[in-house]
Amino acid sequence: MPTPDLVTAELTLTGRITTASNATFLGSIGDVVVVYKPIAGESPLWDFPQGTLAQREVAAYLVSQALGWGVVPHTWLRDGPLGEGMVQLWQEQDPAQDAVNLVAAEQMPETGWKQVLQGRDENGQIVALVHEDTPALRRMAVFDVVVNNADRKGDHILAMADGHRHGVDHGLTFHRDHKLRTVLWGWLGEDLTAEELDGIDRVSEGLDGELGRILADLLSAEEIAALAARCDRLRLAGQFPAPSGEMSAVPWPLF
User: Fold this and answer.
1) 244 within a domain of the structure (yes/no)
2) Which of 193, 195, 194, 132 is nearest to 164 (CA)?
3) What is the C-alpha separation between 51 and 95, in angstroms, rounded?
4) Are residues 106 and 35 both part of a single domain?
5) Which helix (H) or strand (E) holds 6?
6) Predicted local confidence at residue 207, as pLDDT
7) Measured distance CA(102)–CA(46) in Å, rounded
């Protein structure tokens, strides 16, 4: 959990991230750089309850911690210049790395990458959506299944210089209905590793204890029950799931 200073010290806005669909600001708490998303700046959605996205972001961080993989940067709720909202530690990604990319189909790398889909660009050329084949990104894909992430775009993956991969922007998570939309479909049907299965077990066990008690202040009882059911199904299957339902399996735009 955040230190008292990060909760109570003054949060100063230093800029606005204009590419975000909800009001999103860059700020600082002392010398700590943070992202701040006030609840008052959330755009209404037809399929998610209004005013709940900040809580879902915090819930995603807590599940990430339970998994033990550090997928989501430190995230918490606190008051700010525009009211209560989600605050998250800023992460400086490596501009030389791309965990997800669009490449010409004939230039698809032979090793180290997974192809998700093909399409045509504005010039009619066939391009492929690809992502790296790394343990760090696999863990993020498992996390997305567990939290039912409806919006895993390529730009929501931060490639860090040390090889770690952070996932951000988790407001569209934990819906009780199936909503999984992601660009990370490259391991479809592959067996989960022992490490991945252990992480799922930690979440399941946590839901019967402290994790479940904390999440009860952030999510509905139905959403927590659906989270537990997803863990059980994923653990039983032991494989990365395939897309299901009639909705798109990938978010739009992809980045």
Assistant:
1) no
2) 132
3) 33
4) no
5) helix 4-8
6) 98
7) 30
